[in-house]
């Protein structure tokens, strides 16, 4: 492992209580603790967050863009999963 | 899928205003051009720390020192955003830094000018960061997702750099005659390099058309330069500084300022490595890298020790 190329960590920051952590970028660091400190210095210099996750980039599995169509296809022919699929007579309330 | 079909889909996506993400198919020329642009940009951020870092110990007040420290720290952060965005294109930061240190990679011409007085720090924030913002707000609309997102972030932070610089110039311009002279002198020296740093006219670049279509380049250098000048000249007027261009005049018909001839010979000399500070900057960068090596080694050793202790516990 060369000295300027530590493992890559993906950084997720939670901006405010109650909202999800969001991907903001990445940092290189020799371990999780230092990845966390680097992420704080790089991505939250202006109070952008109240919580940080760092995840080894190598641990992330991602779907590939080429399969995008086929991979998400099972959802395409099931419109009955949406409330708008159902016709409710006018006058019926709270549905 | 056939390459021509992939190219067609790629271009359609960009035309529809969608972003290209790291795992998406992209033409090799697109990838190469982005690596070149993004790494030059990253290098410019970290080399840009040097002329200003020079003044941290000599800032005239604690307030100015704290501001300058924060600004220089931001430049380091911007470098990191950009290196990590460039890495999504399949190149290592280490390789990019080696290209910088060996002199193979370029960085912005502007950082090869010296910072002679405190007013230069004002001029850099106001003019150099001002010009950079013009360029970066355009790039934030570019087609490559990671670059565009890094740009959005950087633009937000640059706005502070720009304003603190103008504030320094304003205070000096309203100060004693000597201080005003210092401000004017810095303005005189930084004006031309600042308008040159936005690059030569686009008719000199054969690739512009394709790069514009791929939204790697968003606007012509001349259009960005015009906007920078239109915004900056009234700011100079406001604080009583004189633009060092006797030919500068406002054209009522077009609503734009018109500037005198730009000394492109100087620009190309600096790009070639013959500016006042090219050698000093590169030497400082290489030394900083060397001097930091023990810190990186210590961090690696500490991480290994922690992991070992954890395993034994």
Short description:
With 95 residues, chain A is of the alpha+beta class. In chain A, 18% of the residues lie in helices and 21% in strands.
Task: Give an overview of the whole structure.
The complex is a heterodimer of chains A (95) and B (313). Chain A has one domain: Ubiquitin-like (UB roll) (Roll). Chain A has 2 helices and 3 strands; from the N terminus they run E-E-H-E-H. In chain A, strands 2-1-3 form a 3-stranded antiparallel sheet, with helices on one face. In chain A, a hairpin with a 7-residue loop joins strand 1 and strand 2. Chain B has a two-stranded antiparallel ribbon. In chain B, a hairpin with a 4-residue loop joins strand 1 and strand 2. Chain B is built from 13 helices and 2 strands. Chain B is mainly alpha-helical and 313 residues long. In chain B, helix 6 packs antiparallel against helix 7, helix 6 packs across helix 10 and helix 7 runs antiparallel to helix 8. At the A-B interface, strand 2 and helix 1 of A face helix 4, helix 5, helix 7 and helix 13 of B.
Observed structural traits:
heterodimer; A: 95 residues; alpha+beta; Ubiquitin-like (UB roll); three-stranded antiparallel β-sheet; 3 strands; B: 313 residues; mainly alpha; two-stranded antiparallel ribbon; 2 strands; globular
Order of helices and strands of chain B: HHHHHHHHHHEEHHH
* Beta-strand percent range of chain B: under 5%
**What is the subunit arrangement here?**
heterodimer
Q: What proportion strand of chain A?
A: 15-25%
Largest sheet of chain A: 3 strands, antiparallel
H/I helix tally of chain B: 13
Mean pLDDT of chain A: 90
Most extensive chain contact?
A-B, 24 and 32 residues
Low-confidence blocks of residues of chain B = none
Shape category of chain A: elongated
Radius of gyration of chain A: 21 Å
In whole angstroms, the N-to-C terminal distance of chain A is 60 Å
